[in-house]
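TA notes. Do not distribute before section.
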Amino acid sequence: MKPAINQVDVAIIGGGITGTALFYELARRGDAGRVVLLEKYPTLASVNSDGHNNSQTLHCGDIETNYTLEKALQVRQAAQQVIDYAEALPANERERLILTYPKMVLGVGERECEQLVQRFDTFRYHFPEMELLDAEGIAALEPKVVAGRRERIVALATRDHYSAVDFQRLAHSFVAQARHLQPRFELRLASPVTAIREEERGFQLTTAAEQITARAVVVCAGGHSLLYAQQMGYGKEYACLPVAGSFYFTPPLLNGKVYTVQNDKLPFAAVHGDPDLLTPGVTRFGPTALVLPLLERRHWGTLLEFLQVTRPELAVLKVLGGLLKEPEVRAYMLRNLLYEVPGVGKRLFLQEARKIVPSLQLGQLQFARGIGGIRPVMIDKVEQRLRLGEAQIDPGNGILFNMTPSPGATSCLANARRDAERIVSYL
């Protein structure tokens, strides 16, 4: 028996924070026609948008030391759209998905402290809520960060702003709001798309239950977005470097989010510590950074799919070789590999976490099993470099492929409004 054919105007593939934000934005606009959201798992936002698998952080550009001022202002504007959405919700719903914590980026030692002082001078006029704190000011917010410390420390901090988000709850909220605004918008759970074929007047999507013809398609499926693109002949100039992040738990040591200064030589996130939204009574430290040949963490069935998008070609090997030429990068990658080894990993990570809490003891650290996702970092094979941040493939024919690592979750509504404009203009 042939699957039924369902005709829509827009099909969104992927029910994480990016796909659900676009679903909501198209509903809010009301000019996209009939829209369907297809998610391969039985629940929404169960991969990287699950709070167990991400930093649970609303990035606002103020404490992220790898951002230029221009980038920071863009990210703050994107974050404000999430805040505006949450503040329009009933209080009991809002309080479950977005929280106010103090947050800071901590500079340790003369070089980092001077870097933050200079950054404060540049950013203070654009971020008036930002404070430059000395050790005494830090102790008032985070006493464990100061206790037992000998080095000079300063911090850039904000005290009373939204900084933590349960992105899975936010994804569910987007879908509920979208279907309230547009009852004809459809959600299909447990509906993996096995093929996308371009036709004369749009695209045909195949699932186990049906075939869907869509005038426009947006793929929001992390590393799988690149796989779909390449299966259709697009994005051949890219490969994927999946970087997995793991975490450690401790007893409650921090009141808010404490980030560390990003190392410019390392294209990976700096370690931070904060209260875990989903595990009451613990502080979570991480993420580590481990390259794994998977498109989804702990889903070994995605190994073959990784090999399809990242073959050991010369251009890929040159990028990886360039990374490993740097002694600091080599040492970092080896250390992060060892973080996963029982016994040894905990002792090594203790040194990293003590940069935030000097008095932390080995017995207080516990590897957070089953916690942490994968960030699909793009490799540009033409320019032979890593393409950090968000990436999109737009062939200009009504289909978009989004690969959105951090701050993709923070930028979900800003990206959705951009993509909605493109899709509606195309239609």
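Switch to the second chain here.
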Amino acid sequence: MEKCPVLTTANGAPIGVQQALTAGPRGPALMQDVQLIEQMQHFNRERIPERAVHAKGSGAYGTFTVTQDISRHTRAKFLQQVGKKTDVFLRFSTVAGERGAADAERDVRGFALKFYTEEGNWDLVGNNTPVFFVRDPYKFQMFIHTQKRHPQTNLRSADMQWDFWSLCPESLHQITTLFSDRGIPASYRHLHGFGSHTYSLVNNAGERVWCKFHFKSLQGIKNMTDEESAQTIAGDRESHQRDLFDAIARGEFPRWRVCVQLMTQSQAETFQWNPFDLTKVWPHKEFPLIEFGVLELNRNPENYFAEVEQAAFKPSAFVPGIGPSPDKMLQARLVSYADAHLHRLGVNHHQVPVNKPKCPVMNFMRDGALATAADYGSRPNYWPNSIAGTPTPDPAFADPAWQLGQTIVDRFDSTVGHDDFTQPGNLYRLFDEGQRDRLTTRIAGALGQARPEVQMRQLCHFFRADADYGRRVAEKLGIDVSQFKGAPELAKV
């Protein structure tokens, strides 16, 4: 018979007896019972804030397999080869309900995907509907308030919902979908998924096209009537969770056909609606679905809290070749979702295994609660730096500039096109002899503690500002600049 592992404290110390330590069998518990205290303290902190939206959810792992070549449209590495597989995690959810809400309520269903690619995680945060209630991000939080509880009664309020909707005619498309026969999916396996927002694809030539992502259920679409929903909820509030978990456990792996719609910039300029409006769809006749992959869910989580409750999806998680668009709602969500995870899980939520990329992570973000330093160790925590072996940007991954009306959107180099030496030189020349001497003495004292190559690089700046400035600092550092090739030109720069 296999021996059971020994029970331990959080710091790994073996526990001999799992009973409270008391002064006699009827006596009070003692403060020195640190095992009991540790257990109570941890229990009081087991819960984290629930999501403000999409609080009730279910998740599973799986694989995405490329079935058609779309490399002419995107340079995303995981999409470059037919047959290539990428691990994924998918979380389904209801939108309005709290963490204990019933699965089978009439509500939009969240469809959030995390692709663990070799170039980082790509998160696609969508729903089972291709549109949304609002197009202006100022209205998003207000809309969610109407879906929650009345501030006085703490009850759901149809008046709040319809008051808001009646003042926002752009919501009619989503209302029509929500109250249609597809408003109550029978399960998470029997619904389509949509990226909903307009995104962009960029290829190796730097060409950009706009796109929308679609996930078509290969199980077919199944929905409930209002009566079936009420009956299901009466018997099982976790009907979708149970169905998904049990189906995967049986080996009945749900699958979705993954497609994309594409629109060029010239088509966007003549499209009859704003192509970046989240309340509108792109007609399939004009922009047909192009299949490029199959998504399969084939593994259940081992621990719901660790892997589903702590899963963090954010539209700002892009990979090279896939990017945002001028969609106003998407632009706001790029910030909002990431900020929500910083609140719920903390600044290092990306270190939680379900969120952790499977490729090397190299950056200069440091510390914070529960930092492990596993990805950076003793490397410098600043950029730019001249330390060998530290991460550096690679221009090969730069996105092409956007032409938005008369404006160019790009990452402009802040070091180019500026005169950074005339004004410091003028200031130096205002100083009298004593001030110049004290200035250069102080600088040499501090700069002398830096590496020789750093000293030489900084000396060039002093010389560009004023020849006397550079000469004095060099002398006080004990550096003979004439020994270096090109040194006479320093004073002329």
